[in-house]
Structures are given as structure tokens and as C-alpha cells.
Amino acid sequence: MQALVYNGPGQKNVEDRPKPMIQMPTDAVVRITRTTICGTDLHILKGDLATCQPGTVLGHEGVGIIDAVGAGVVSFKPGDRVLISCITACGRCNACRKGMYSHCATGGWILGHRIDGTQAEFVRIPYADTSLYPIPDGADEEALVMLSDILPTGFECGVLNGKVQPGSSVAIVGSGPIGLAALLTAQFYSPAEIIMIDLDDNRLAVGKHFGATSTVNSADGDAAQQVMKLTGGRGVDTAIEAVGIPATFTLCENIVAPGGTIANVGVHGIKVDLHLERLWSHNVTITTRLVDTVSIPMLLKTVQSKRIDAKQLITHRFKFDQILLAYDTFGKAADTKALKVIIEA
Amino acid sequence: MQALVYNGPGQKNVEDRPKPMIQMPTDAVVRITRTTICGTDLHILKGDLATCQPGTVLGHEGVGIIDAVGAGVVSFKPGDRVLISCITACGRCNACRKGMYSHCATGGWILGHRIDGTQAEFVRIPYADTSLYPIPDGADEEALVMLSDILPTGFECGVLNGKVQPGSSVAIVGSGPIGLAALLTAQFYSPAEIIMIDLDDNRLAVGKHFGATSTVNSADGDAAQQVMKLTGGRGVDTAIEAVGIPATFTLCENIVAPGGTIANVGVHGIKVDLHLERLWSHNVTITTRLVDTVSIPMLLKTVQSKRIDAKQLITHRFKFDQILLAYDTFGKAADTKALKVIIEA
Amino acid sequence: MQALVYNGPGQKNVEDRPKPMIQMPTDAVVRITRTTICGTDLHILKGDLATCQPGTVLGHEGVGIIDAVGAGVVSFKPGDRVLISCITACGRCNACRKGMYSHCATGGWILGHRIDGTQAEFVRIPYADTSLYPIPDGADEEALVMLSDILPTGFECGVLNGKVQPGSSVAIVGSGPIGLAALLTAQFYSPAEIIMIDLDDNRLAVGKHFGATSTVNSADGDAAQQVMKLTGGRGVDTAIEAVGIPATFTLCENIVAPGGTIANVGVHGIKVDLHLERLWSHNVTITTRLVDTVSIPMLLKTVQSKRIDAKQLITHRFKFDQILLAYDTFGKAADTKALKVIIEA
Amino acid sequence: MQALVYNGPGQKNVEDRPKPMIQMPTDAVVRITRTTICGTDLHILKGDLATCQPGTVLGHEGVGIIDAVGAGVVSFKPGDRVLISCITACGRCNACRKGMYSHCATGGWILGHRIDGTQAEFVRIPYADTSLYPIPDGADEEALVMLSDILPTGFECGVLNGKVQPGSSVAIVGSGPIGLAALLTAQFYSPAEIIMIDLDDNRLAVGKHFGATSTVNSADGDAAQQVMKLTGGRGVDTAIEAVGIPATFTLCENIVAPGGTIANVGVHGIKVDLHLERLWSHNVTITTRLVDTVSIPMLLKTVQSKRIDAKQLITHRFKFDQILLAYDTFGKAADTKALKVIIEA
Predict the structure, then answer these.
(1) Is B105 on the interface with C (CB under 8 A)?
(2) pLDDT in tens, C31-57
(3) Where does chain B have alpha helices with state H?
(4) Tens-place pLDDT, residues A53-77
(5) pLDDT at A291 over 90
């Protein structure tokens, strides 16, 4: 089969690889019908993740059709249409029993990272019963690709951890795909204010279109002052960090109100300064989280009931044989205005 | 009346001061029967708190008897015995309505800080209805002095914020009065393990006596490894920071398990490093809090029902005319083994 | 001043009464600019509430302008525009400190019940600091009358107690003003399904217009079957009882899914059957609540940010000298299609 | 193998039955080393549960050693010592993902009810990975038999649902094994008062010994008045119903304080009266629950760390060939003072 393979920093190729087989009785093999590219795939390609070995098929998102199941799989059979979680969950270990699938003792984020992923014709999914979700009849499968990773990440790490509430004030630092996913799902809770912060006016315009009540371009360096002004000097109840660098985390520290929450979503490469000399008495909460995807069943209901339009995030569509072009388009998002790209089989 | 007055960095005196009077209809004047000294008083004396003006009577803890009340006070009358909260709460502002008394718009921690405090014969208490608590008949008033600040602080900032649960594992970094207050109140929730960490073997022995399941002397620099060993490599569900310096906060970062919580109690003078390059994916929560003292009514019930022995924290007793000696004893805790000292009228 | 007085079962009159005066230092006197009529006022007039003495001025909702304040009132001064909570809260007692204002030791629902109410030119409000709310500049005061009672009741007793969540399923039994208030505020949480149930097709049509995803006319006696069919046999996560009779409570018992919640809002005159022989193993929660109005500040924000259109509930408007006509219109709601009527000074 | 078989109302026999075999890849077969008898087994024998067919091996509690596992079992292998949950959980369905194992789509309470149970030499356990728990080295296996059902039931249905808190007041109606299990586990949360209510003075004495702060014999018919007196007229924050008849549920309604919770644990055969004409405004919560056993891992930690002495519940011990005598002893608890009886292989 054809697959997009990471061959070391800066190197990716479409290669012919053997079709994956059932290795454990709890495995399934899924024929991919649609996948996408994540910012994390770009990180791997830059060589930022030493845990990803050259030779790995990339990709941890997608939908498809069950091709084969192991003897221990009870929920799925060949031909079933399924949504793939980016997180593999055994469903049995202590972490899984607490709903913290991201820290599953033998799973977690392994797809397209420690084992071959979804940017291929077929993929092997361990613990299929608890790592795949049935696709309801009549569902728009393209929209569901957004439920593999990006929407659960924005929702769980940003919105749920951030305790967004009716009438509350929210700032989202970073208006890229993940910040926008937080923006879309924050609206489940009807906050009074959602302030979108970014350096890129185009992305801010998208944020406004997606429901932000105001936007702040942080290029001028006075983003904190602007947020304080917008909130009558109080700061925000929830600050969602969706970038992953020290400057944006510091901005969150500067705009969170006493009693508020900083929900970190960004993937950080270096440490940040935590100003406890000021915050020790501010009754703030700071959270981190690798998405658990426990919210997929709930998100499926909101998509099916049209409470959220997940497809808004999709800007470009490609066939699998155009996957290198898809990477190119996604990689140059500032120019192409790409958010999420769909790659169809 | 006699009062202990802060006269600038390094200077304190017992002075004769006019008895405070009702200034607002919501005020009460309380005759102090017992007060104590807090680590924060020592900070003020070192000159660490610019917000405390020379000339201020120190002290924010104590019990006493109502001497006078303003026209707007409905819950108390002269002669009533009362417990004084270290936090003054108007009960009306947005922060107070949310139970975040520490951020009361016109109150918060003002006693012995921005207005004259309790280390005197009399003290004026603003918003008396919501800043004083009636003392039940037959209560041990000495024990109740521990409810003005130290026990609510250990409980609210450490135990509640730290989400201590039955069967969970807890590490408390710092076995001074505040760490021991966290230790005593953590046991309300029956954690399986409570590991006490300090540099001082005497304080660790006290921790063991107060209910710690194990102790770690951090002088050797391998405290994190020892905690990981004690927890089978998992780390702790709750790490309570009860010191207030970068090294102890970093220790907490190194021992908190995925899904766990770092509850900061310590008063920090400088920033700390937050290792998001590692923790971003660990599903951890970090909390800060200035005590709100909302737990005083609950703590009163636990003291009255003997679920907790608050007096264990009291090591020394003085008369008010010995208050300079009391400061000396409390200030040299490493030698005197003082935890909390009682100063009686 | 003119006031609408309850003079015993079936008897109400507009009478001339002395203007109320400050009695306690915590009182305010408010000049009413707008008030409304509640279903509970009709109950009093029927003689259902023995706790309401003949001679009482009715009404517990409204907005107005501060006319006078007692010495102990610190948050308001004459001329301030205020929203009146239907619940009087001392802010000091154990119940108030827990946010359960409805059970305030010396307050609770007393306005227009145990003391004179708001259907008059002036009203005395005890504990003004904690029972009144400032009206923001530029707010639509008519809309805010809905925040005195009906919206907090639908929200707190129905939606919050019912734990409505994104993607969840909700049934509201009773599409009168209170059921519709629950319907409007349930949408703060983006449930996937909201099924409105009533006997009156007009009210169901209003429900549909206000956001219900489906409606069931319960006249045929098969409402439970219809709800089970709409939910694929699962039943609803939240059943909100907004009528107050045994039949509607039983309907809730028949449609709540395992793990779900029945949130009672209705005022019941007689006991109901609780089918524990079936429900003991269904992991259900049943809640009751007299509104606490703790959500007024939050609701104010959602009204100000246009997350909710509170004025949708207002169907008729009268001047105070037409108040008897207003009662007539509200009392014959099946004919007049009245929901909430506004009475303007 | 030998097994205790239900042969229709009033009839039980020790019979020779074929050893169970693996039927599904997710099954395990366990050799029972210790089991016990539950009050529910007596209900089945009375013919109260039509869902239990004659011919069924009884028993849903126990510990044992893995004898065989299906191809899909990944957590256990022959020879492993395991604790059997009374609830079978697939770990995959919607209910299981929410932690509501009791309503597992294909599991739930099936052992010794819909399929053969644990009162035998061997038992087949479906979904072994998520229905069995590893026994830590050195654990007291007899104590762990209390974790199959009785302690999780008292804890989850009574204590957790009842929201027992430090300093709160609790009444437990029924001082039999299940009420005593609630009593033992309520103490995890350090309530100020635990009032035990029963008709049997011996069981009340046991309650006192197990930690109740007071006891009330309800034979005189004034139990409600006694509880109100003990609580200063306030009633209790938590009333745990551990009997299952209308009179005891009504007692809970009469003693629950405003804002409090009635946590039903009892198995009811007929409906009860819910006095909403009084309770509609009392802000109470009523919960029901079939145990989910999600608390087993936590309870294991509390047993291992000696926070609870689970063995206190064991009054009698028998060998398997004495199982009919064990039933006799357990069935005549009023005379034999039996709480839980252990049946050893």
C-alpha cells in the first residue's frame, strides 16, 4: 500500500509499504477513507520529536472502514465505518479507568508516532474496541475527521480545563487551527466574551467569523493592556494558551483574573517563567493536558445535532496521491490560509 | 491600650495606642483575649511587604469578646465571644458572592497589614457580620485561634485545592506550621500516603507524629528520587508546596504524577521555572490561593466533634506583656522548636 | 401610595397605603418602575398559601430606583437603578454563606408573601446590599424584570440542578413561563435535544420558536412512549418538571434515562409516587429547589452580551393603574396567550 | 465441580456441575478461593427476582485464582490472584465509558443472577480485563472479599452519592451489613456526626463500635424527632437509606436538612411516597444507584494502607462443604448476629 513515511528530519516520502496485519487479538485494521495533517506532524518532520523513529508512517487522524478485526474485538466487524481517535486506549489500565486515555499504560499517543499511522491506505489500530468509534448513519464523514484530534483537543485541554461558563470571559491566545477549535467549542457554554489574540490579521478575521466577540493583534506588544481594557480592568476568567512559546504563556499570566484559569493547550519546547511572586495570592489555576479524546461521543452528538459546524475548519481538500502537495499547503498556512486539509483515499 | 506596632523594617515596639472606635456602621470592636504570630508578621518585619505602612499594629489572628458594634451589624452584640478571620469580607461584592473573600473589593487581607491588627488589647473589625464567627459554648478558645488563618490556609490552599481524596497519595513540601496544618487537614480525606518533606529532622518527626506515613529529608538533594521510590515510580496525586522558594516548587514539579495537582501554599518572593516542555502533556493542575477562610464554619465543626486536634500546633504560651519574647521564640523556631505560640490577654 | 393588596382568598384590590419606611439599618426603599405577576401570586389569591396574610401587598419581581437606604447599606445610594431579587438574603447566615439564599435564616422568599411586595409604588427591601443588584448603564430594564425570578428559577432549579450538558438530551414537562425559562437557559449548555411537553399546542409552538428541537402533546397519554421513541429508547439525560402535579412528575420518572436527573421546578400541593421498586437501580438523581437567585449576576452578563433574549417572555404591557386588567390577562393565559406581563409605573 | 444452585423459590442445593469453560475471547475462568453470601442471594431464594432462572449458580462476590483466559484477555494470566467485581463491565459501551458499569449494555449485575455465579469451585467471568482486579502481594484476601460488593455499595451508593463531607452530619437508616459498610466508608470524609438508626439494639451497638457518634432505636416511632433533637433541629446533611421499605425512606424525608441529600441504597419492592408538597422548596437531592464498583481500586488502596479495617464486617467463617450452614447462619442474622460470612474453598 501507499504511505507517507517520515525518514528523518526534513525528509518525508510516499512509499510502498506492506499492508498492516492483526498482531494482537484486540487489534483492528482500518482502510482509511479520509485523513488529515496535524501541526504535530510538522514538528516530527522538523526533528522535534526524538520519540518518533525514521521509517514511521505519519498521521493520527482519520475515518475509515474496518478491514479486519482480532479475536478479542467485540464492538466492530469488517465493513463498519469508524472514526479513529488520535489516542489509543486499552480501556483497562488505571489511567484509562479514570478517563485519562492519554496516559494509557500501553497506549496513549502512539499512532503516527511510535507505531505506523493513518496517512496510508490501511492502518492497524490497537485496542480497537476502545480506540475507534462507530460512525452514525448519514453522518458527514469529512466533518468527523475533525473529531479525531483537533476538536477534542480544543475542547478538553482548552474549554473543559478552562472551565468556560455561561456569562464568563475567555481569551484564546493563538488563532490557528487549535485555537479556533477551542473557539468553536467554547461556545457550547455561552460565555459573554471571547477575545481572540494572534499576530495574523487573517486568522483574527477567521476568529471573528467563528464567533469571537473581539480580537486583539498582539504584534504591538500591548495585548495585555488591550485585554484588560476590554474586560474593564478585571482580566479574563479563562485564558487558553494555544501557541506553545514563553511569550504567549506570559501573556496568559498577565490577563487572567483572580480566581481564573490558564488552560495550556500549546506544545512547549522550553520552560516558561511562572510569576508566583505575583500569582501566589491570585487564586488561579493552571492546567496542562494531552487530549484524552473522552469527549468524542459527546462531540459526535453536537455535530449530529448541528450545535457545531465542524467543517468550518476545513479549507483545502486533496486526494491521497496529492499528499505531498497537501503537506506543502498546510505547511505554508500564512500564505495559503490553510486551517485543516482533508486527504481523501 | 497596649499594641505591638511595626515601625519599619526590623523595628517593632509595644506602644500605647488609643482604643479603636466604630468608624462604619458595619464595624465591630473586639477585645482580644488570645492572639498569635504568623510567619507573615515576620515577613512584614523584614520589610518584605511594602504594602504595610510603619505605624501599623500587627496581627491577623485571634479570638475575643465583642466590645461595640455599629448600627448595621445584625449578628453580634457586645459580650459575644468571637473568632476573628484573618480575611475581612464585605459579603456583598462579586468576589465575596463567589466565596473568594480573599479578593473582596474592599476587604481581603487587611488586618495587621493595611489597617491595625489583633496584637493589641482591642481591634476594629470591618464588616463584622461576615468577618467574625460566633464561638460555640464550651469551645476551647485556644484551639480556635488556629482557625483564624493557619488551619484554613493549610486546608483551603493545600488540601481542597490539591483535591486530596480517599486512597490518594500526597506529598507536603515543608513541615513548618503551614505544612503541618495541611497535614492535619489532609487526613479529613483519608489519603493512603502522606509524605512529609523538609530539611529539619525535628520538623519531620513532628510530621510523623501528626500522621505522615513517611518522611523525606531533602538535604541530600535526592528528595524527588525518594518520593518516586516511595510511590512505586508513579509520583504523587497531590504535591503541596508549603515553603515558597523556587527549589521547593521545582521539587513539586518533579514528583507530581500525570493527572495530579500541585497546590501552592507558599508565599513566593521571586518567579519560578515552570517546565512546560515536560509538563504540557502530563495533565497536571497547578493552583495558587490566598486563603478565603470560607472553611471556618466547617473547621469549627471538625474541632468541636474532635475529628481534628487543632491544639497540637501550639507549642508555647505567653501573656501579652511578653509579646516581644513570644516574637523572639517564634522567630527562632529552629532552636525553640516553636510551631504556633499563643499570646493571652 | 397605590398598591395591589391581597385581602383573602379570591380578593385583591388596589388600595392606598402608606409609603414604606426604613425599619432596619440594612433596609432600602425602592421606587418601583416595572414589576410583573408570577403564577405564585395567583396561588396566593386562590388561598393556597396560608403563610400569606390578608392585607399583604403582592409581588416579588421588579426593577426600580433607590429612594432611601438605612445606615448599614454600603452598596447603594438614592437614585441608583436596581434589580430586585425575589429572594431576600441576609448574606451572613449559614444558608447564605453556602449560596442557599432561599433558606436564609431571616430572609428567603418573603417579598409579597410575608412582607409587603413590589406591586406598589414603593417597596421596602431588607438586606438591600445582598438582595438588590445594580443595573448596568444602558441595560434594557424591561428585560431585567425577567431576572428577578423567572429566569433564575428556570436556570437554577431546572438547568443547573438538571446538569444539562453539551450534547445531552433534555425534556421539559410544561411549556408555561417557567418551562420556557428553563428552555431558554438550557441552551446556554448546547444540549443536542430539547423536547418540550405540554397539553397546549400554542405553548408547544412557542417552545419550538424558543429553541426546542421537538415537541410532544401529552393529551393523548402516550407522551412517555413518544419521548422514548425520540431518544432511540434511551430516555432523556435530564427531565425538568415544570408543572407541579403527580401526573407530570410520574411522566418524568418514566422518561429519565439510567444515570439521568429529574429536576423538579413545579410547586406541588400533594405528594407524588416515587417508583423506587424500579428506579432504585437506575442511578438517577432527583432534585428540588426554591430558587436562590445566586445566578442573577451571571444572567445579567448573558443578557448584556445578548447570549439570551429575555424579552421573548414578555407578551403584554400595562400601566400600574391597569394592574387588575394585567391580572385578568395573566390569569386567562390559555385564551390570552400571556407569558409574562409587564406593569410599568 | 460443586456449586450452590438456585432451584426455584425456597429451593437451593449443592450440586455437581460441569466446570465452566471459556466461551468468548474476553472471558476468564477463576478458581474461587473465598466467596460470601449477600442479602440479594436471600431475595433470589425467596423468589423476589423473576430475572434469576432456576438452575443458576448463586453468588456474585469472591476472590480466586485465574484458571484460564480467552485470547482477548491482556491483563491476566493463569495463576494470577484476582478480586471479582459483582458487576461485569465490558469497558467499551457508553455506560462503561461514563463509569456506570452497573448499566453496561452487555454486563452489569449478571453474576449469580443471569449467568452462573461465584458460590462454586469455578466461575466464568465475562470481560475479565475490566471485571477482575489484581490482588496486591501480601494482601489479606479475606478482607478483599468485602470489596466485591458490600464496601463499594455502601461507599458509592451511600457515601459518594450522599456527598458526605468533613464536618457534615450523616444519618444511616439501617445498621445491617450494607448500612455498616456505609458507616465504615463515610468515615473516609470525617463527618462531624454519624447517627445510626435501626430497630435492633445489637446492630446499633455494632454501629457504635464501628464509629457512629450516636444511635437511635426506631422501634418507638419517634426516630425523626430524636434525629432532629440530636442535630439541633436542623436535620442531617446526608440521610442514607439502607433498608428498602417505605417507612425507612419516609424517615429519610423527615430528617434531611434543607440543602441535604437522601442517598438510597436499599432494594425496594414497592413504591414510596415522595412528599413534594413539602420538599419541593427544600433544595434536596435524592439519589439511587446500583453499585458500579468503580471505587474498587481506591478501596484497595485504603485497605492496603489500613485506613479501613474491612474485616470488621466478617463474623463467621465456613468451608465450602458447609455452605448450607453458612446460608442458615446468614439467614438468621437476628439470632446469630451474622454480618458477613466467609466461605472458603
Answers:
(1) no
(2) 999 999 999 999 999 998 889 999 999
(3) 39-46, 94-97, 128-131, 141-144, 150-152, 177-186, 201-209, 223-230, 246-255, 276-279, 296-304, 323-331, 333-336
(4) 999 999 999 999 999 999 999 999 9
(5) yes
Tell me which residue has cell 471505587.
D295
Please determine, for residue D6, whether its predicted confidence score (pLDDT) is greater than 90.
yes
| Contact of C124 with C65, CB cutoff 8 Å | no
Residue D21: count of CB within 10 angstroms of its CB: 10
Task: Provide the CB-side half-sphere exposure for D31 (13 A, CA).
Answer: 11
Region A282-310: mean pLDDT is 97
- Interface test mutation site (partner B, options C97, C104, C293, C296, max chain B beta carbons within 10 A): C97
C-alpha C281: how far from its chain's center? 33
Say which of B167, B189, B307 has its CB closest to residue D301: B167
pLDDT digits (tens, 9 = 90+) for C178-209: 999 999 999 999 999 999 999 999 999 999 99
Residue ranges of alpha helices (H) inside chain D are 39-46, 94-97, 128-131, 141-144, 150-152, 177-186, 201-209, 223-230, 246-255, 276-279, 296-304, 323-331, 333-336
C22, C26, C94, best to mutate vs chain B, most B CBs in 10 Å: C26
Average pLDDT over residues A172-201: 98
Closest chain D residue to the Cα of A134, Cα to Cα = D93
Q: What is the pLDDT of residue B220?
A: 87
Q: What does residue A223 show for φ and ψ, rounded to 5 degrees?
A: -55, -45
> Percent of chain D at pLDDT above 70?
100
Is residue A48 over pLDDT 90? no
Do residues A180 and A158 touch, judged by C-beta distance below 8 A?
no
B71·C73 Cβ contact <8 A: no
Q: Say if residue C7's pLDDT is above 90.
A: yes
Q: Which chains touch A (3 or more CB pairs under 8 A)?
A: B, C, D
CA-nearest of B203, B189, B110, B102 to B153 is: B102
ipTM, 2 decimals?
0.97
| DSSP H helix total and E strand total for chain B | 13, 17
* Cβ burial, residue C232 (10 Å; 0-12/13-18/19+): exposed
Residues in chain C, overall count: 345
Query: Is the separation of the CB atoms in A263 and A241 below 8 Å?
Result: yes
Residue at grid coordinates 513515511: A5
User: Coil, strand or helix: which one is D188?
Assistant: helix
Q: Judge contact between C200 and C334, C-beta under 8 A.
A: yes
pLDDT band at D184 (very low <50, low <70, confident <90, very high): very high
Are A191 and A164 in contact by the 8 Å Cβ rule? The answer is yes
Q: Which residue has the cell 453468588?
A: D59
What percentage of chain A exceeds 70 in pLDDT?
Answer: 100
pLDDT band for position A220 (cuts 50, 70, 90):
confident
- Closest A-chain CA to B263: A285
Least Cα distance to A300 among A143, A65, A108, A157 occurs for A143
User: Of D188, D195, D237, which to mutate for an interface test with B (greatest number of B Cβ within 10 Å)?
Assistant: D188
**pLDDT above 90: residue C282:** yes
Q: Pick the residue from chain A with its C-alpha nearest to B98.
A: A259
C274 contact D CB<8A: yes
Residue ranges, chain B, pLDDT below 70: none
Asked if residue C148 lies in contact with residue C61, where contact means CB atoms within 8 angstroms, the answer is yes
With cell 525535628, the residue in question is B202
pLDDT at C220: 87
The number of residues making up chain D comes to: 345
Residues 198-237 of A with CB under 8 A from C: 213
For chain A, give percent helix, strand, coil, nearest 5: 35, 25, 40
pLDDT category at A135 given cuts 50, 70, 90 is very high
